[in-house]
Specification:
Blueprint (H helix, E strand, L loop, with lengths): L1 E5 L5 H4 L2 H9 L3 E6 L4 H6 L4 E3 L12 H5 L17 H32 L3 E5 L3 H10 L3 E4 L20 H9 L10 E4 L13 E3 L65 E6 L7 H12 L3 E6 L11 H4 L6 E3 L3 H10 L3 E5 L2 H13 L2 E5 L7 H20 L1 H15 L4 H9 L13
Parallel strand pairs: 1-2, 1-4, 2-3, 4-5, 5-6, 6-7, 8-9, 8-10, 10-11, 11-12
Length: 440
């Protein structure tokens, strides 16, 4: 089969598609990845073949201003109860949806033109790339959406989440002769069931597979899946916090063995990971909590902007083994990496989707959650908030219930079918898919 993948951005958008694309290639199918020009290099580094799909205006590279200013606290289940949201919150969602429609408009002409030439039998797109649904509808082939770890399927293409399609999206579909009501036939969901909110859309569980680039990652593995590697296999990171060199290890039961972690002379320290994605770095309260942890002898391994100018500690999924907790923003990839590793999570969430993920993790008992909006304020307020975050962090380290819940979440996440099973499911379909939408 010919499978056309498409996304509009590298990072988490592309990373979510890579394991499935590689699984299709391994099964003998033809795969192309249609992206705007700025994403082609990232696709090639993933070992996949990029094809051009338009050029995005620079202004679309950032979320709309109204979304960047939104730092309030959202209801814990807002995707399934949009009626509880106020006008300002609905305005944020509308702005985000209109931005995705604008991205689809910039990609659609090139994507549809290439699809009509190459004639794929299936289009797979990340959840925010509406141009994928447009191209599939224009060709009359099935579309499959790939989620990236959110606890809910966010229908930002609809008015007020559960209404009719956004006007701009409806116009775009009609431009290519498609029904605006046309939707992906299936959604691939890596979120463990206990974290996911219910939705009417048809979802296929697919186990989260950490991204490994064959060209950039220094952590090459001879195993096709990270979960096939023997537990005694060790990975060294190029950087650990100044308190000690990191080397992850496991005991015979497959659990992290903290006593076997090397730290020079003397007993091994308790280790945690701090990962932060925002370019501005973590809030002062988060920095204060990490300083408090280090003052008590905890080793902090920093990733992203939490490293504060230090060399990166390595991919999150390679750093987590041996860590007893992780502090992060609540992004889907970080939530899933921690879930697969069985590590308790402290989530300090700035954005609505991250707040949703944090609330769901806390509900399972596998972590704690604080909206970042509660951390804003004067230096004195930041110090008080940092002290509370430190207490939450120490609770993850000291209370066994968090470890028990995190291990239960790990077993649930690892028991989900892998990308290879999704390939079998997606290719087991009638021969003539162009006469009617397929139902898996």
């Amino acid at each position: 089969m010919r499978i056309l993948f498409t996304t509009w951005a590298p990072g988490g958008h592309l990373v979510a598609l890579v394991p499935l694309a590689r699984a299709f290639l391994a099964a003998g199918h033809q795969v192309r990845v249609a992206v705007p020009g700025g994403c082609a290099a990232a696709v090639a580094r993933a070992g996949l073949m990029p094809v051009p799909a338009g050029v995005l205006p620079r202004a679309l590279g950032l979320p709309p201003a109204v979304a960047r200013r939104s730092r309030g606290i959202w209801p814990a289940d807002w995707p399934v109860r949009p009626g509880v949201l106020g006008p300002e919150q609905h305005g944020v969602l509308r702005a985000l949806g209109d931005r995705r429609v604008a991205i689809a408009e910039a990609m659609a002409q090139g994507l549809v033109a290439y699809a009509r030439c190459w004639q794929p039998e299936l289009v797979v797109h990340d959840a925010s790339t509406y141009a994928g649904t447009v191209a599939a509808a224009a060709l009359g082939v099935p579309a499959v959406g790939q989620l990236w770890g959110s606890a809910a399927l966010l229908r930002l293409d609809r008015q007020r989440l559960d209404g009719p399609p956004l006007p701009g999206y409806a116009r775009l579909m009609r431009r290519y002769g498609a029904d605006p009501a046309r939707e992906p036939e299936l959604w691939l969901d890596p979120c463990p069931p206990s974290l996911a909110l219910p939705s009417p859309e048809r979802r296929l569980p697919v186990r989260f597979v950490p991204y490994e680039s064959p060209y950039e990652s220094p952590y090459e593995s001879p195993y096709e899946s990270p979960y096939e590697a023997p537990y005694e296999r060790r990975y060294e990171t190029p950087y650990a916090s100044p308190r000690g060199a990191y080397e992850g290890a496991y005991d015979a039961s497959g659990e992290p063995s903290y006593d076997s972690v090397r730290h020079g002379p003397g007993p091994a320290p308790t280790r945690i990971c701090a990962a932060w994605e925002d370019p501005a770095g973590p809030p002062e309260a988060v920095r204060a909590a990490l300083r408090a942890a280090e003052a008590r002898g905890v080793e902090v391994v920093r990733l992203g902007t939490a490293a504060e100018g230090l060399p990166p500690a390595g991919p999150l999924h390679r750093v987590l083994p041996g860590c007893r907790a992780v502090l992060h923003q609540g992004g889907g990839s970080a939530v899933l990496a921690a879930a697969v590793a069985g590590v308790p999570q402290l989530i300090v969430a700035p954005r609505p989707e991250q707040q949703l993920n944090g609330a769901r993790v806390a509900l399972t008992g596998a972590g704690a959650y604080t909206p970042a909006a509660l951390l804003d304020g004067a230096p004195r307020t930041a110090r008080a908030a940092g002290a509370q975050l430190a207490r939450d962090l120490f609770a993850l380290l000291e209370q066994p219930s968090y470890v028990v819940a995190a291990r239960a979440l790990r077993e649930e996440a690892r028991s989900m079918p892998g990308p290879e099973a999704a390939v079998v499911r997606l290719t087991a379909r009638p021969e003539d898919t162009r006469k009617a939408p397929h139902r898996w």
